[in-house]
Predict the structure.
Amino acid sequence: MTEEYFKKYIHFFDGVIAEIVAEIADPPTPTYKINLAYLSWYGYLNKKVTASYSAGEPIGSLLPLYQQCIEALALYKSHFKAKNIFFNGHVDEYINALELVSWGILLNVPQPLFEQTVELIDSEGQTDALLDRLIQIRLPRRRSSQQLAFSKFYGGFYQALLREPVAPAAVGQYLTVWYDTCLKQTATHDIHTLHGGDNSGFDGYWCWEAAALSYGLGIDDGSYQDFRYYPKDMVVYARQQAPTPPTPPHDPDLPAGFGLR
């Protein structure tokens, strides 16, 4: 889709977000479900991050958006009626967790913000080996899970990540099948049938985890930079900000294998 299309959608998101914020400040009815308002607020901010990248907005402008996104998520998670939204049996929601961690890595967000993101995901009490591998880029002492939440989708790619060093061809192979796999196994990626309309809800398809791993593990992405769904500009930005991702200072009092779990 065009830059104009995405900017139109961003404007729409801004309007909806403003309405939600106003209703949270002054609930329209006594039975107003503020927990669902927090969740919607988070959801629209999340979509705005993707749409802003798709529109070609300056990547630095995504950092404050990301921070707002996490703030809204924290409000939802702190509500007594909050439910699992990343690990609820659906790959679409799990992909959202991969997005948040990948954005945190690629945007080089402040360490406390990254740790808050991880804690919010961890609050659901689930484990996943691929997600752990991503998180270890910024939290290298995190324990690794021994299982994948969605092995049919990510099994082959995760096995390739266990080889040191990770071969660029492994990431390239993952990118060749990523979109078709999404079509088969997710609910949101069939929205491509509606791309011709202004009301499709399409905010862009990007394989964020491939970019985060390429940057975080120092993989040469030259052979797959031009893959359609690879957000190469985000990787270029990350490398300009810091050649390697920032990590927390080592605490000698922590035992080996210490993690947030």
Summary: The chain has two domains: 1-83, 87-245.
